[in-house]
Design a protein that fits this description.
The structure is a single chain. This protein has 512 residues and is of the alpha+beta class. The protein has three domains: 1-205; 206-307, no CATH class; 400-510, Heat Shock Protein 90, CATH 3.30.565. Helices cover 68% and strands 9% of the residues. The protein has helices spanning 2-40, 46-51, 59-89, 94-119, 130-167, 179-201, 207-237, 242-264, 273-326, 330-346, 350-368, 377-395, 422-432, 475-487, and strands spanning 375-376, 401-407, 415-416, 439-448, 451-459, 492-498, 502-510. The chain has a five-stranded mixed sheet, covered by helices on one side. A hairpin with a 3-residue loop joins strand 6 (492-498) and strand 7 (502-510). It comes from Pedobacter sp. KACC 23697. Pfam families: His_kinase. Keywords: Kinase, Membrane, Transferase, Transmembrane, Transmembrane helix. InterPro entries: Bact_2-comp_sensor_kinase (IPR050640), HATPase_C_sf (IPR036890), Sig_transdc_His_kin_internal (IPR010559).
Amino acid sequence: MEILSGHSSAIKSKNINQLAFWISTTLYILALISICTQITYGSGRSYHFSENSIDYSIMQNFFLPELFKISIIYFSFLLFSFVSMPQLARKQNVAMNLIITIAVTTISIITWMVANTYTQAYRIVEFDDIDKAYDMFFGEAFTYIFFLYLLFNAYSYFNERGLELLKRIPFLNHYNNNIIPEIFTATKIWLISLMVFAAVISLKIDYELLIVWLLVPPVNIFFAFCAIYYIIPNLRKNFKGFGRYFWGNVGLTIIISILLLIILIPFMRNGEVIPITLVLNIICLICITTPSAWYIYKHKFEKLSEIQMLKTELGKSDANLNFLKSQINPHFLFNALNTLYGTALQENAERTGEGIQKLGDMMRFMLHENTQDKISLTREVEYLNNYIDLQKLRTSRSADIRIDTHIEEQLNNLQITPMLLIPFIENAFKHGISLQQPSYIKITLQTKESTLYFDVSNSIYIKADHDPEKLKSGIGLENVKQRLSLIYYGKHELIIRESANEFFVHLTLQLD
């Protein structure tokens, strides 16, 4: 899944890059068409010149300056986005790319300044000193180009390093692997929209509108991610529906709007912009972001549930197939054990009879309960106790072997997947007991409400070279890890620690 997720995010990132290229190219073509259309109809702002009794040439005062202005912005964007900034982000040819960036920015500012002295020559008459007019043209060109190119380079840098930077944020890694690529994609789309917004409005830029655009989309994006990855999952966990989610979001929207108001007041000269911004933000949060986040979560949840169900069924099928391949006829073995048990009683071999009886109980469990999806925890524990008692029969004559069990008897009618706990105990007896060296095993099992706490610790000793278990690789533990991840996904915690002298397992399990 991680490979698929990484591959998917790479595809999305490539698609966003293509989107940025085609949006910029489309805007450039539309701007060319607009210029040509105005030439065809003899417009090109000539009325401003005639009002101020200034000679006007459509080529000199409109077509060529506008062509230079839009062309240098378009090609600068391509240069920054696909050449210089990606190399700077990767620390390649740093000096050369810095020089290119500074040079292109300087040339663009000069080009815009000179072009505006032609397209807006009628504004010169407003000044007593022509130098003041040129200062105005330079100031406007510098402000616009500097801000626009800052956005270009911010987008290009984030495109290269954004994913890596987001992965360094600790609390984002607390969630699943999808959230970081999704935040990366959403931020890139917002930056693209911001660049389009800034480029289209050109020198008519209203910084108050720009502040609105800087704040409202990120607030909605942040709100959507909080809803999808925190608010809705917690509501669903407590069996709350859309109504509770919707009215809860209305309350959050009011709080966010108050915070937004506090941020906006110092920057707004026009008092009318503040209520417009707040109303726009409230409408977006309640009418667009809230239902969209709910729909996206349901779609993602259903998709993940379907994948999880398919993985679970596939795991069960593989387990059943392996069981069928490896088993002998259980009815025959069960009947044979009954015969041996009767013979042991006739010969007064009580220990042998006890062992056969417990083995028979284990076979009965394997024959009936093992094929079910869920069984009572009591039956699972009975199987564990029978297995432990059989092992104690084997080791009872050795004073150096200590087996301590603290297994709770009151188990609250809980249900569990069969044969889930036994691999840990089998592993302890297989690898933790030596008939020649002091050994110990400690097993603890208890429940608190619907949570199972299971601990197994055992001694470790170095096996002889001729021991057939020396090269075994703990396949049983790997299988049980897989079963836990399939059947109890998000409902278990498994801790395995190994030192030079001890092997320890702790399992916490949420049961039904």
